[in-house]
Amino acid sequence: MNDSVARLARLSPEQRARLVARARKGTPPPRSLVPRVDPSGPIPASFAQEQLWFLSRLAPGVPNYNVPFRFALDGPLDVEALTAALNDVVARHDVLRTTLTAAPDGLRQIVRPHDRRELAVRDLSGYEDPDGLADARAFDLARAVFDLEEGPLWTVELQRLSERRHVLVWIASHAIADGGSIGVVLSELAACYAGRVTGRQATLTENPVQFGDFAAWQRQWLTDDRVAELLSYWRDQVHGYAGLGLSYDHPKQPGIALDGRTVTFQVAPTVAARITELARERGSSAFMVLLATYQVLLMRLSGRDDIAVATPLAGRDRPEFERVAGSLTNTVVLRTALDGDPSFGELVDRVRDVTFDALKHQDLPFGKLVEVVRPARNGQSNPITQTIFSYGGTPLMRGETAFGPNARLRCDGMSNDTVRFDFELVLDEKPEGLCARFEYNADWIDRRSAELICAAYQEILAAAVDAPELPLSKLPAPELPRWEPDESIPEQARRSTDEVSPLEDELTALWASRLDVDRVGRDDDFFGLGGHSFLATELVNDINARLGSRISVVELFQASTVASLAKVIEDQPDEAPEDTPDLAGTVERMSDDEVAAALQRLRSRA
């Protein structure tokens, strides 16, 4: 393999896709440099930070938006040097000293001065099962709740298993971190630690861009014209999509927590090698081959040939953003037509083209799409797509990293048993090979069903890459869960046909008064009529005072028409329960897209 090919092989799926797209259309003119902002003053928050901020105000205590990582350290370790190196890294990156605050002109980032932080050390070496205790402790840390206003928005703990074995647990709020930024932080931590141990200063280049610079640039880049252009594309992409229509093993009862579970497996080395070969033959990437396989699986599972899958993109395609610590990820929808019984190779081509187009339009915040499209919701599922697929992982996942002169660091990965989609498939390149985990909502899906899905994916993948010329109809049809199609109509999508009830009359009058409009129909949407966060709060207070009800602002988000909200009120018990469910639990049961849509409406109207 020559140097050029080797460099291409090391690129992420996103980078490879962009490179091919540029080669096809010619190199675009260079974009302007990202300007620096003054870190001593308030800095505009990113769009993702705004979403997380509103969620935290509505529901303190939700742990779903954490970025948990666990690293095994083998070899002798100097704790004092590690503590000093940690502080070196914190001083370098403003985002690690950032909190958020609401201001009259919007949400702002506040960069705090660097105060030395001590590294928490937990010695488990004297216990019978230090590894088990470390796992349990890491899980507890992964469910930590961060106060976005008070900070700090990350925590780190060193667990001592023996004299030469340690575990470093790093948990951060998604408001300041993603997988890419953890890679930046850990690589610099390793360099600074080596410098501290050896007495030689670490040779790190000055950070050209801080996260605050990215957030300010993001707002300048997304002009009204640019947003309109992006929305036009994404509206067309999701228009008319009917979803997977799956009913699962158990009905989606309201009021239950979203309890996540995981099934793991490893792709056979011979199959993994063939994935790389097929990707090269089709001018695509391993990501596209693996996604095409997943969409075949979803076609088998749902009986539909129009499949949309969400996927996270790193958002680090500009050179200035590659070494930025902070949350730059965004979610896009990849919708592929599987009709016409194409060969698997032809399907990979379709996925490649869809992916290239999505990459060119990836800058639109996902929540903005949900806000504008306003798809009908059905229970707790995400309204646009019910599943997410990701591949690649951080470079730290793919091997060991030298940590000082005598120690090695590797990422072991971890979960905090939360789930925000019905189910998702994640594949990572690790030292031991191509590893996968299937995360699913255990309240709806049995483990046996999850295991069948994992086995089916592996069988379809092996056959598809071995004979990509086969039409999809000739690929294996392995055993899958027998989920009946869910033909129910989402409550928000129904049009009311009964006569207007006295309760609905009361509600329409209250809505018209608060919204200052002459007339409100029973199927009109509160936010579509101009409602926003403050009016929502005032309206809920009006309704509860007039009717003696106990609805919450969150329930108005979920039932935002007069007819649907009237049903919520009618279904409430006559007396309040002794233990009223907390608001955090209510919001945690909302899907990612429901939260995003509600919060984007707040931001755009407030």
From TrEMBL:
SUPFAM superfamilies: ACP-like, CoA-dependent acyltransferases. SMART domains: PKS_PP. Residues 498-573 form the Carrier domain. Keywords: Phosphopantetheine, Phosphoprotein. It comes from the Bacteria. Residues 476-500, 571-590 are annotated as: Disordered. It holds the Pfam family PP-binding. Its cofactor is pantetheine 4'-phosphate. The keyword Iron does not apply. PROSITE patterns: CARRIER (PS50075). GO terms for biological process: amino acid activation for nonribosomal peptide biosynthetic process; lipid biosynthetic process; monocarboxylic acid biosynthetic process; secondary metabolite biosynthetic process. GO terms for molecular function: catalytic activity; phosphopantetheine binding. The keyword Ion transport does not apply. Residues 571-581 have a biased composition (Acidic residues). One of its GO terms (cellular component) is cytoplasm. This is Carrier domain-containing protein. It comes from Lentzea tibetensis. The lineage of its organism: Bacteria, Bacillati, Actinomycetota, Actinomycetes, Pseudonocardiales.
